[in-house]
From TrEMBL:
Protein name, as recorded: Integrase core domain protein
Top-level taxon in the UniProt lineage: Bacteria
GO molecular function: nucleic acid binding
Gene3D superfamilies, per the entry: Ribonuclease H-like superfamily/Ribonuclease H
Annotated organism of origin: Arsenophonus nasoniae (son-killer infecting Nasonia vitripennis)
Entry's Gene Ontology BP terms: DNA integration
Domain Integrase catalytic: 1-153
InterPro entries to which the protein is assigned, alphabetical: Integrase_cat-core, RNaseH-like_sf, RNaseH_sf
């Protein structure tokens, strides 16, 4: 006999109250909790009727019960794991009552027998639970726990995978995978079609785990509208010897487009509302014709047009010292001489040839256009003769 402390673990079925009990060395460890849960889910046969994957596992908030190992197992098997608040043991009252029943109806007799090994202890408790659940009436249902549990329907009873598979699932964590342009993800050396996963889009990252019941499927973890984790089964993409998907279209023979994602469906609905259309074809035609959304009834600048700003007093300031650049137009001296000659002739003055030499020497790069009139006055002042035309009449 091993001199070590023995711990009992109890699980109860919420509907029938069926009690499963098992003894373990080592205390309330993650491994012990996980192994007891896996054993309780197995189909043991005979009067030990309780088995199957539960829909909900309701536990206390102990660290072992909410460890990653147990969470991984629950997540992969689709079990919703709920831990009640700390220091609220009455929340799991059926388990506390099961512990009381075990102490009064089973453990009280252990003082009269010699138990040399924990396997013998578990054999005895197995015999006890089969008989107690089959014979003791439950006050709430008025039936024995076994009779009540046998009312379970095929749709409610989910058979658990073998023990070795469950243990593998307990240590395997969901893996992140990126959705490809073909709405597929790679996982465990294969590709899986995720087009049926609600809300999935190209480029998204999804959590995927193996399906313990079918090797040709995997499971994608999805957060539903209540914020709870649920599973969506995705099939493996079957391929031929050349790596083409068996359900893909044949080149030159057929065409097949991927189904629209929810985001694309929502976009189509929004566009139909914008253009007042009822089909995608009508929407495309309206966009091609550059039709205004909402028939032009929506003016995004209406608020600006109706805005009445306050009147602000002008602020005093200083003039900028920066001067604007000045651009001078320079004329060819020949052109200027022609203009001045005409002006001299009109004024009765005599144009002298040295005036041209003076102008070209003073302005070798051309004469500024705004100085032509001043130059004309300057040159006229240098000559005083006036040509008078006399006409004799006889």
């Amino acid at each position: 006999m091993i001199n070590d402390r023995v711990w009992s673990f109890e699980l109860t079925d919420h509907t029938s109250g069926w009690i499963y009990a098992e003894y373990r060395f080592g205390g309330e460890t993650t491994q012990n909790f996980t192994d007891v849960l896996i054993n309780a889910m197995q189909e043991r046969g005979g009067a030990d009727v309780l088995h199957g994957v539960p829909r909900i596992l309701y536990t206390d908030p102990g660290c072992a019960l909410v460890s990653s190992t147990l969470r991984n197992l629950c997540k992969t098997l689709g079990i919703q794991l709920i831990a009640h608040k700390a220091r609220n043991a009455r929340a799991t009252g059926s388990v506390e009552k099961a512990r009381d029943i075990l102490e009064c109806h089973f453990e009280s007799g252990l003082r009269f027998v010699q138990v040399n090994h924990i396997d013998e202890l578990n054999r005895l408790v197995g015999l006890w639970r089969k008989k107690y659940n089959r014979t003791a009436l439950h006050r709430r249902t008025g039936m024995t726990r076994t009779d009540c549990w046998l009312h379970i329907t095929p749709g409610q009873l989910i058979k658990a995978p073998p023990v070795d598979v469950c243990r593998e699932l307990a240590v395997s964590q969901p893996e992140n995978r990126k959705v490809s342009t073909h709405l597929r993800v790679s996982f465990r050396g294969s590709e899986y079609d995720v087009r049926q996963v609600p809300g999935v889009c190209v480029g998204d990252t999804v959590q995927i785990v193996r399906n313990p019941w079918r090797d040709s499927e995997a499971q994608v973890v999805v957060i539903n509208e209540d914020g709870l984790e649920v599973f969506c089964r995705v099939p493996e993409v079957a391929k031929d010897d050349y790596g083409f998907a068996l359900n893909s279209p044949t080149l030159g023979e057929s065409f097949k487009a991927l189904p629209h994602t929810p985001a694309q469906h929502h976009l189509s609905e929004v566009e139909q509302t914008l253009y007042g259309t009822t089909t995608p074809g009508e929407t495309a035609a309206a966009q091609k014709a550059n039709a205004l959304p909402f028939g032009g009834r929506f003016n995004p600048y209406l608020e600006n047009e109706r805005d009445t700003p306050p009147i602000y007093l002008p602020k005093q300031g200083q003039a900028s010292p920066v001067c604007a650049p000045r651009f001078e137009e320079r004329l060819n001296p020949v052109v200027v001489v022609q203009q001045l000659r005409a002006r001299f002739q009109a004024a009765g003055k005599t144009w002298r040839s040295e005036f041209y030499t003076t102008l070209t020497q003073r302005f070798p790069d051309g004469i500024p256009a705004d100085q032509v009139d001043a130059l004309g006055d300057e040159l006229m002042a240098q000559t005083g003769d006036v040509v008078v035309s006399l006409a004799s009449h006889g």
